[in-house]
Amino acid sequence: MMRFGYWLPVFGGWLRNVDNEQMPPTWDYVRTLAQRSEEWGYDLTLIAELNLNDIKGVRAPSLDAWSTAASLAAVTSTLELMVAVRPTFHEPALLAKQAANIDHISGGRLALNVVSSWWADEARQYGVQFDQHDDRYARTREWLTVVDGLWREPEFSFSGRFYNVEKAILEPKPLTVPRPTIYAGGESETARDLISSLCDAYVMHGDVPTLIAGRVQDMRDRRERAGLPPLTFGVAGYAVVRDSDREAREELERITNVKGSAAGYGNFQQWIANTKLDQRLSLEDYSVSNRGLRSGLVGTPDHVLQQVLAFEDAGVDLLLLQCSPQLEEMDRFAKQVIAPYRAGRRGSRPRPARPGIHDSTGRSHPVVSAASCVDRQTG
Question: What digits encode the pLDDT tens for the residues 324-377?
């Protein structure tokens, strides 16, 4: 059964072309959102980690991931807390201790999203080593080995290129057995080899279900060759749920009205330069982070529900949603998509609809890509 998660809005939103998304990056807002999301039936929140704001511009405020996660652990009861962590910013033994403590505060709800750093300017500002792509993954491999060893062993030693620990003791161990879930993403050969051998779950940027299915199968094959238990799979997606095709199109055009001079544009270019992605990125991907529009969660409730089912058929276990503003849109998504999905899974599965955005009469219309909206707005 599909699980539904969301990105906590630690940057004040996800739209680089909309200055004020009515969800400020404040403790009051994210606490309220997390508590309401449990009432609405969400399973997980992903708490991103950057010290600078790559969505709204480097001078805009953003929340710290780990202090926010510890605070949320104390004021929520069911939500899985997937906290991003970048090995270059955290010594593994210290992070392992910190994470184990938060796992106890939460009652066993902590998970890690291990991210190999990509932002050179941020690293320089904060006095942190910035490795090149393959070196970042070599560091991450050692980092994961140390964290896992400390969580599992009574006493652990390790000597490597990047890290050394000697007869280290970590108590108490995390509540989660054998360890908190370790999520990670990446599209390079180096990244996929590391994730398939050392992690528990593979998370992907947004894309259509047919392409996601191929990536899922590739990682399943790698995992099987390694003789390890199956991975679980997550996909990012930006959701726009409206009662009619016209309303969905209008919102899509609003959020993809690209402004190349916007505050986050330079950070986006650095991300492209320091990652190795399967596809060339477009201004559509600039407009909404994590390639979220490619997942096709734009349209009427029926259309979005069919897309959820298509991802389920592709092998996806978790949707990581973005929307704006989140309090209002997550409530809408829960009522119009999650509730019918779960009701359908308890009974008979809804019949797949034809591809396209569907209006309230059930008629199908061709999907309007964000890229075509960009062409109209900028051409």
Answer: 999 999 999 999 999 999 999 877 554 444 344 433 333 333 333 333 332 323
Tally of CB atoms within 10 A around 299: 30
CB–CB of 338/40 below 8 Å?
yes
Look up residue 232 and give its amino acid.
T
**What is the rounded CA–CA span in Å between residue 185 and residue 204?**
6
**What DSSP letter does each residue of 316-367 carry, written as one string?**
--EEEEE-SSHHHHHHHHIIIIIHHHHHHHHSPPPPPPPSSEE-TT--EE--
The token duo for 225 is 């060759």
Which pTM value belongs to this model? Answer: 0.87
Q: How far is CA 344 from CA 139, 179, 230, 347, in A?
A: 44, 33, 26, 5
Identify the DSSP state of 4.
E
Per DSSP bridges, beta strands 156-159 and 164-168 are antiparallel
User: What are the CA-CA distances from residue 282 to residues 184, 249, 260, 262, 366 (Å)?
Assistant: 24, 19, 12, 15, 21
Q: Are 90 and 83 in contact (CB under 8 A)?
A: no
Please report, in angstroms and rounded to a whole number, the separation of the first and last CA atoms in the chain: 43
The 10 Å CB-count burial string (b at 16+, else e) for 191-215 is: bbebbbebbbbbbbbbbebeebbeb
DSSP state string for 192-232: HHHHHHH-SEEEE----HHHHHHHHHHHHHHHHHTT-PPPE
Reply yes or no on domain 3-378 having CATH 3.20.20.30: yes
Residue pair 365/356 in contact by the 8 Å Cβ criterion: yes
Query: What residue ranges do the domains of the chain occupy?
Result: 3-378
- The DSSP letter of residue 260 is T
Taking the C-alpha atoms of residue 198 and residue 100, their distance in angstroms, rounded to an integer, is 18
Q: Are 305 and 341 in contact (CB under 8 A)?
A: yes
Token pair, residue 277, equals 């992605």
Q: Residue 258: helix, strand or coil by DSSP?
A: coil
CA-nearest of 91, 108, 89, 92 to 100 is 108
Mean of the per-residue pLDDT values of the chain = 88
Task: Indicate the DSSP class of residue 288.
Answer: B
Name, in order, each residue with C-beta under 8 angstroms of 376's C-beta and a sequence gap of 6 or more. 253
Q: What is the pLDDT of residue 133?
A: 82
- Cβ atoms of residues 70 and 102 within 8 Å: yes
| Burial of residue 376, with CB atoms counted within 10 A of its CB: 0-12 exposed, 13-18 middle, 19 or more buried | exposed
